[in-house]
């Protein structure tokens, strides 16, 4: 470790303190010789940096949005899923934190080693099951005695979530997730050693009137081969590589082919229902537009240009005079 360099002002202040007796040189030597010890819990070893944890959080924010869309379409009810927290803890602590009876979905995420767990709170799991069986989505905690049909329905629902998981992780690595098993007792699930570090992503989940948590447990062994990709530099480099000039040109050409609705507004007015019913042939309706004023051209019902009417090749036409720009609102 390099020696700290003091400024001249700091040196003068130190000498002054020693001269006046405000500071004891022997005490300074004693403090320097004392060992500085910091308590470290090896059972809670931090194996991921804050930057890497944020990257995992970004992946699962996307996953939460994809799950919201999936479950909304499957359950035909209001669904809202958001990331609540991302923490790294020992696997033993994760097992202790979840209910004794819950829904545990085990996913194999080949080509990565190991498996990840999606723990679904019973409150949420049975609400989903009730919706699948035609109910209102009420939560009645009876997970400990699921029938064979109920088990199959829940398994099929979370098997469909593998497509969302694959898409969410595609920005980092191409995985082929497969739902291998569904378990209800976490004590029978010894995924890794108790002291192994795992990343737990907690998702706030609301389905209809029911709310609860979905926890995703990712062991260190799963993320170890791709830890180097969980950095800001990798994400920035990856984003730069994705800027394919050919893709941009193709997108621009496709946009040029999109049809939009253009309307030239001759004028507008308002009449009441009685006047409308009394209209007859030859009656005149006065518009709010003067004949010497430019017309308004609307693009997809949005005012875009001021134009003047005319004729071009025996067809009615308008000539663009100026663009209509929105004036910035003044903050008062």
UniProtKB/TrEMBL annotation:
Its main location: other. One of its GO terms (molecular function) is cytoskeletal motor activity. It is a peripheral membrane protein. Coiled coil: none annotated. It is found in: Bacterial flagellum basal body; Cell membrane. One of its GO terms (biological process) is bacterial-type flagellum-dependent swarming motility. This is Flagellar motor switch protein FliM. The gene is fliM.
């Amino acid at each position: 470790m390099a020696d700290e360099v003091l400024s001249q002002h700091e040196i003068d202040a130190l000498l002054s303190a020693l001269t006046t007796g405000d500071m004891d040189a022997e005490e300074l030597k004693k403090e320097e010789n004392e060992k500085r010890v910091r308590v470290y819990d090896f059972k809670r070893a931090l194996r991921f940096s804050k930057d890497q944890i944020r990257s995992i959080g970004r992946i699962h924010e996307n996953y939460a949005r994809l799950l919201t869309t999936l479950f909304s379409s499957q359950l035909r009810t209001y669904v809202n899923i958001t990331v609540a927290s991302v923490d790294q803890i020992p696997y033993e602590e994760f097992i202790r934190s979840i209910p004794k009876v819950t829904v545990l979905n085990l996913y194999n995420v080949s080509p990565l080693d190991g498996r990840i767990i999606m723990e679904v709170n019973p409150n949420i799991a049975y609400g989903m099951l009730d919706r699948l069986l035609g109910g209102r989505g009420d939560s009645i905690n009876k997970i400990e005695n699921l029938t064979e049909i109920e088990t199959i329905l829940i398994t099929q629902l979370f098997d469909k979530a593998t497509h969302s998981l694959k898409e969410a992780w595609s920005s980092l690595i191409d995985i082929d997730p497969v739902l291998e098993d569904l378990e209800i007792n976490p004590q029978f699930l010894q995924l890794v050693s108790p002291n192994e570090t795992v990343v737990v992503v907690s998702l706030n989940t609301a389905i209809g009137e029911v709310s609860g948590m979905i926890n995703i447990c990712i062991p260190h062994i799963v993320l170890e081969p791709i830890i180097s990709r969980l950095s800001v530099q990798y994400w920035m480099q990856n984003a730069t590589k994705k800027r394919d000039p050919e893709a941009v040109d193709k997108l621009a050409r496709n946009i040029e082919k999109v049809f939009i609705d253009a309307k030239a507004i001759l004028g507008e007015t308002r009449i009441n229902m009685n006047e409308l019913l009394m209209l007859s042939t030859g009656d005149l309706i006065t518009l709010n537009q003067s004949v010497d004023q430019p017309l308004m051209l609307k693009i997809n019902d949005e005012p875009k240009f001021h134009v003047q009417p005319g004729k071009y090749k025996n067809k009615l036409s308008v000539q663009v005079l100026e663009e209509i720009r929105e004036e910035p609102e003044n903050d008062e």
